[in-house]
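Usage

Read records sequentially. Each one opens with the input sequence:
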Amino acid sequence: MKITFLGTADVRPRVDAYVSATMIEVGDRVYLLDAGAPVSDLMLRYGRRPDALCAVFTTHAHNDHVDGLFQLFSHCIHVYSKASYDVYMTEAPIAQAFCDCIGTLYHLEFPKDRLRVHVAKEGVVYDDGVLRATYIPVAYHEGPPHFAILIEADGKCVLFTGDMSQNLKDDDFPRVAYERETDLIVCEYAHSLIDVLDPHIQRCRTKTFAFNHYAGYRHEELAAIVNSGRYAFPIRALRDGDVIEL
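and closes with the structure output:
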């Protein structure tokens, strides 16, 4: 499994990073987890065409996690006409709004047979025999339903926390992180900082832990955490273009 971090910033615009988007490759199969960044352009930059996609998984419907879907859908209607993939969103009205918007802009019926938009619920939402995606509810930061997503492929297991609640209300950190061994945990660093996260990180059973989705002014703070030697596993602060191969 090859994981390329296309966008690692939080909602704040930055000159050195796009907002949340991650590309996952398993052999010749390609998947996206969140699509806030201009994902179709970025996929090309990293050697993959949008018509190679098998599925897109979104953790929630905030703009910095889904805005790139507008561009992706548009390109896959007009340029990559053979594109065919599943998209998992977390709210029916927003999923419908995306389809309606594209149809209105281009005066056509949204190609639901090729670009298959689903509303994700708790549990396994996707399993193509190569990659399995399990949605795990977390407390809302604000607005729409939020999920962590567990990705299993190639004998490896990766947990993406998604956006958790401010200061982890209701013991919000995904419990699966304590309950099973993972190869990688990718944790947002926008809504809960290290003083709150630390006891949860200490309990994690993982081989590597990585911070994602953070403001640029957090670079020095995260560098101190990475170099602290405090944890039993390596810690990373991700940057756009970073690649992790498992």
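Summary fields computed downstream for this record:
- Residues 2-245 form a domain with the Metallo-beta-lactamase; Chain A fold (CATH 3.60.15.10).
- The radius of gyration is 17 Å.
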